[in-house]
Specification:
homodimer; 329 residues; alpha/beta; 434 Repressor (Amino-terminal Domain); Rossmann fold; 3 domains; six-stranded parallel sheet; six-stranded mixed sheet; 46% helix; elongated; DNA-binding
Chain lengths: 329, 329
DNA sequence: GTGAAAGCGCTAACAC
DNA sequence: GTGTTAGCGCTTTCAC
């Protein structure tokens, strides 16, 4: 087998407990001895066995990151950032995909529970109540969701939505449509509310249509509804839905942005590459990943002492080619 | 703390070893006792502590998955599939991103080693020799790389490249250019070789230009080189590079596919969404993720007894809008 | 400042 | 078929 703390101890001529202290509580050990121990460890290529220390300390130094769909371009930047940030702090992260299935989410939390010090739930599909219950056993941080007693990272998509509505109003659009996301999506709810109040403020008509699958197919399926209502400005749940609706409108001989303007959300690669390039609400995805890990680590070291924090991250609007002035009848 | 095997034992009125057996070697225990144990476990919501069992068995039931860049659209489908497949087999997976840095890769393997039963290395940047050495300590599977003694999943990009060359030849192109990937990329080497022999067969001129960064920037930077050589058919290292070169050519007033045809590789979302939609060599990414986990699990259960397997997965060519007949002078 | 010893939760011989 | 025991690698009292 590999090299253990005992090997280091005998090479350094000290007891295992001294080695342990030298590694994890250096101030408790004589500087000279510590040096000897460290040298021995280096020489042997010693790496502490986390499983063993987890057993005694109850700290695994692992985190879980649970997302709905790894292949949805919204998530990879978040995963990447979270994972990098965690690693700098000597944490490894399990990444798991629930395929948008609440039950898989719960099951996953269960099997992960013993192996991690905490879990980041990104846009969970589980009911609030469930999350509250589960959070009694294990530190959680939710992203884009608000749950009593649970730390949260919120992307302020409401603000971005207001910007989008103003932008559309400024272009002369009078009739807007919001394509809502999956049932239970916090962020979709934020968008709806913000859109309603902003529309009222600008004196615009607004229809909310949903739920829609958060995919291109979901968007394509909504195209007919857009045409039927005669809306000329559309705010889609995310970039994928926006791309889908543009494609679907194309099949109905409705051109974007000439006939209808479409705004996406997330600012994914997909949106940048689409033609027309998407006007989109920019979500701070990497920052959300880092912040979530940060809050989680705090909760963990605080011993999860009941205090939950909230971080709100700003969003913006990037105007590209999928929005334009309303066509004059 | 949580419920342990001891709690289950006392509720079921048996000894801990019986519980352990009932869970992991059911055939060694009386059916009736087993039922009693299971009932007790269910009642208490018992979940075995993997860290503890890892300590005795040396099996963590965890895998590592190391990729160069989570945010590169090539990887997410692979990660998603690998992770889902592993979970069905009761394995969790650590996902880690090296940011294309060989040193990070090695460091990561080191810190992960004790916590996993094996590691999938996707398109590693490490030298073969290093991987060979590391594979002495830990089961590895490499994807798109061949290393002596290490199981591998290979996507047969050579075949896809031949198809692409034939396709371009059929459209009348006589002068081709291959935009190679990063130094040390196995898959780039396969493409180059296949392109050379296929070009020779068709009597075409071929230039290989590289290394290029596997990104849009890398592609954009290559546009001038394409124009300089007068190539009318380009095969790019991946979809991102293809998209970049198309963009770059646009700035030079070279139109795709009217003036130059461009073929990508990977069949990512990005390529599907790009305008013109990319003609691309289709990589079997989800299958590669599953197969890699499959081989890894085999290696692990075989005790890593020296046998290494190779799986070769077929690739194809999807023709879309970025390729067309050569322009007649 | 360092050593000795107990124990984290579980599995794996070995008895019976 | 089930109980007993030792021990995986590490941390953490408690002595000295």
């Amino acid at each position: 087998m590999a090299v253990t703390i005992r090997d280091v101890a005998s090479l350094a001529g000290v007891h295992v407990s001294t080695v342990s202290r030298a590694m994890s509580a250096p101030h408790l050990v004589n500087a000279a001895t510590r040096e000897r121990v460290m040298a021995a460890a280096r020489q042997l290529g010693y790496r502490p066995n986390r499983a063993a220390s987890a057993l005694t300390t109850g700290r695994t130094h692992n985190l879980g990151l649970i997302v709905a769909d790894i292949a949805n371009p919204f998530f990879p930047p978040l995963i990447k950032a979270a994972q990098a940030y965690a690693r700098e702090r000597e944490y490894h992260v399990f990444v798991a995909d629930t395929d948008e299935d609440p039950q898989a989410e719960e099951e996953l939390i269960g099997t992960l529970a013993k192996q991690v010090d905490g879990v980041v739930l990104v846009a969970p599909r589980l009911a609030n109540q469930q999350i509250e219950r589960l959070s009694l056993d294990l530190p959680f941080v939710v992203v884009n969701r608000q749950v009593k007693g649970v730390s949260a990272v919120l992307m302020d998509v409401g603000h971005g939505t207001e910007l989008a509505v103003s932008h559309l109003a400024g272009l002369g659009h009078r009739r807007l449509m919001v394509l809502a996301g999956p049932r239970g999506s916090w962020s979709s709810k934020q968008m709806e509310q913000a859109a309603r109040s902003a529309a009222a403020e600008h004196g615009l008509e607004l229809t909310v249509s949903g739920p829609n699958a958060p995919t291109e197919q979901g968007g394509a399926a909504a195209a007919a509804r857009v045409r039927r209502t005669g809306a000329t400005g559309v705010i889609a749940y995310n970039d994928l839905v926006a791309i889908g609706v543009i494609e679907g409108l194309g099949h109905l001989d409705v051109q974007v942005p000439e006939d209808v303007s479409v705004v996406g959300v997330d600012d994914t690669v997909a949106g940048r590459l689409n033609r027309p390039k998407l006007t989109t609400i920019v979500m701070p995805t990497p920052a959300a990943g880092r912040t979530a890990v940060d809050l989680l680590l705090q909760t963990i070291t605080d011993g999860g002492g009941g205090v939950s924090a909230q971080a709100s991250l700003a969003t913006g609007l990037t105007v590209r080619e999928s929005t334009g002035p309303v066509r004059r009848g």
